[in-house]
Amino acid sequence: MYTRLLTPKWVLLHLLVAALFVATFFLGAWQLGKAEDGGGAVNWSYALQWPLYGFMGLWFYVRMVRDELRRDPDEDLPGNSLVLYQKPRIDTTGDPELAAYNAYLAELNERALGQRSSNGR
Questions:
Q1: pTM for the complete prediction?
Q2: Is 120 left (phi over 0), alpha (psi -120 to 50) or beta?
């Protein structure tokens, strides 16, 4: 289950989030230093905001990881998307060549749905 979070994409994302989380605290400390040197109210507010940004980013990242772990790993495979099916009406009143083509497409669709349902979906 957790092996999905060890792919190269996720490992890179873990490292990036960790680096950015630590960076927000360095930026907060830098802003605090400027505020203590007489930087004013703006520097004091930024000194508080930078760590808050770090925790917000971490919170969103934890939610993203949790959603990934809850996701069905097979949903990305081709042919597993939800298809709402309505049996097509074949117009036989007009062009006979078009009616034959529509009947052929309907037959292909029925075969595809039959194969899909026999595969357990």
A1: 0.58
A2: left
